[in-house]
Structures are given as C-alpha cells and as structure tokens.
Design brief:
- The chain is mainly alpha-helical.
- It has one domain.
- It has helices at 2-18, 35-51, 56-72, 79-103, and strands at 29-30, 33-34.
- A hairpin with a 2-residue loop joins strand 1 and strand 2 (33-34).
C-alpha cells in the first residue's frame, strides 16, 4: 500500500508538471489564498514526502494545506482551473496519506 501511494504521488506530480498553469491565475487570490503559492506549496510538500518523512512542522502544514482546498475549490469559477486545482488537491491529499502511513 505504501509503495503504491509513493508511485501514485510520482505519477500525479509528473502529470501536474505537464499541465499548463491556468491563464489569469497568476497574482490571483481566492478566499485569501494566492493561487500560485497554493500550487507551489502543494508541489513542495509532495516533493518533500517523496524524499522522506516530513518534520512535525511541515507535516502540520500539509494537513492545513489540504483543508485550504475545501475553501478554495468551490470559489473557482473557471472549468480548466477547477480541474487543475482538483489535481493539485489530489497531490496534496496523496502526500498527506503517505505521511499518515509512515506514522503507523
């Protein structure tokens, strides 16, 4: 299960890198979140999880980040951007699942 999740994160990250950033979302804040930083933070946490366990502070940050998507996603009114950020959310959720498995 753990190795499958690691492979899934790698796959989602590769897919993410192939997706163009949504037009008009650079410099845009939605629900108080800078959309570029939301994207970058999710990718950074996923990359950190691939490299090994996150320290306590970063683990807590990842949990907070996954919650942010519940606020932001419903407020996006662009079809492509919604799909893009759902993909980013999935990447963050997978990273959180791997961290949970590591703690068991």
């Amino acid at each position: 299960m753990f190795e499958e999740k690691i492979e899934a994160i790698s796959q989602v990250m590769a897919e993410h890198m192939a997706m163009p950033f949504p037009p008009g979302f650079r410099g845009l804040d939605i629900e108080g979140q800078d959309m570029v930083m939301l994207d970058a933070d999710a990718y950074g946490y996923a990359l950190g999880v691939l490299k090994g366990p996150l320290d306590e502070r970063r683990g807590e940050g990842l949990v907070r980040l996954t919650a942010v998507f519940e606020k932001v996603l419903p407020a996006i009114d662009d079809k492509y951007a919604t799909r893009y950020y759902m993909h980013v959310r999935d990447m963050a959720v997978l990273a959180a699942e791997v961290e949970t498995l590591r703690q068991k």
